[in-house]
Give the backbone structure.
Amino acid sequence: MYKLTTYSEDETMELAQNIESEKFPNMVIALVGDLGSGKTVFAKAFAKALGITDNITSPTYNIIKEYDNAEMKLFHMDVYRLSDIKQDLGIPEYFKKKGVTIIEWADLIPELLPKNRLDIRIKMIDENTRQFIIEPHGEKYVDLCERVL
């Protein structure tokens, strides 16, 4: 487990860009944190580093947004409302589509998450300060953390 503190939105974005630099097909990033903690900021910065020029917003009402106009596909999920829907959206299928999947509110669907993934829990310390608790599951994710953190 790794702990990292950022003191601005720019530092949060830099962290996301550093993780993006080590991306690989079928990568899954599970984001957890309170409303306003920086999950979407992280996803936006990752997408930008990937070369996605679209405006990245939290896909709360869509649940899943796909971006394929970059060096690798990005599947951005927000499963906050999933408990209201109770339907099979084929979420595990996305983990095999050779892209990167970023899941906001991942703690709400633990039974759907793959065994190998990168868990990132974001704690709000104050208006600008965030603590990132990063837990790699699987050798590829451990290697990634050792390279960028």
